[in-house]
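[Discussion] Sanity-checking designs against the backbone

I'm trying to build intuition for which residues belong where. Below is a structure token string of 170 positions. I'd appreciate it if someone posts a full sequence so I can compare it with mine line by line.
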């Protein structure tokens, strides 16, 4: 198991072998000589036993990392559950921030830089409500960038239901 250092909202990995392995699997962004992982990526790698995260000299447990993420991002744990589920299904999952959503999702087998994401994924709790204009805006944005919109609804039991939202032309 290799180590990363918590730095704000990122976890920095300096080990060159681990950096290239993670980059090949679609994790992180190069940042100088380090690979910068998002907190969600780092929590997933820690949860699967592939990364140990340190804050100073203290090794952080899974629960510590989730608390860190929850302090910095609303619905962090639900987003993590969706991220983990999609990764375990073999999907490449990247941040969707530049599209105003939680994740960009690539089909199975796509390597980062070798294709385009096909979906935008928005993670919401079971009690989430929105107006039709809000949903129409999200859908319009997705279609403008040639993607489909998926709402991932996480219920109180942490079960996830995915809804592909599209428009019909009559």
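Best answer:
Here's mine. Compare freely.
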């Amino acid at each position: 198991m290799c180590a990363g250092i918590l730095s704000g909202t990122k976890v920095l990995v300096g080990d060159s072998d681990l950096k290239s392995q993670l980059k090949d699997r679609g994790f992180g962004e190069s940042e100088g000589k380090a690979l910068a992982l998002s907190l969600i990526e780092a929590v997933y790698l820690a949860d699967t036993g592939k990364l140990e995260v340190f804050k100073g000299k203290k090794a952080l447990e899974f629960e510590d990392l989730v608390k860190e993420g929850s302090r910095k991002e609303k619905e962090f744990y639900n987003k993590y559950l969706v991220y983990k589920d999609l990764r375990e299904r073999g999907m490449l999952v990247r941040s969707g921030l530049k599209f105003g959503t939680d994740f960009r999702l690539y089909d199975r087998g796509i390597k980062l830089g070798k294709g385009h994401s096909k979906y935008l994924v928005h993670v919401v709790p079971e009690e989430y409500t929105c107006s039709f204009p809000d949903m129409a805006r999200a859908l319009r944005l997705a279609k403008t960038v040639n993607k489909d919109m998926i709402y991932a609804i996480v219920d109180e039991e942490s079960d996830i239901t995915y809804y592909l939202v599209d428009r019909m032309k009559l």
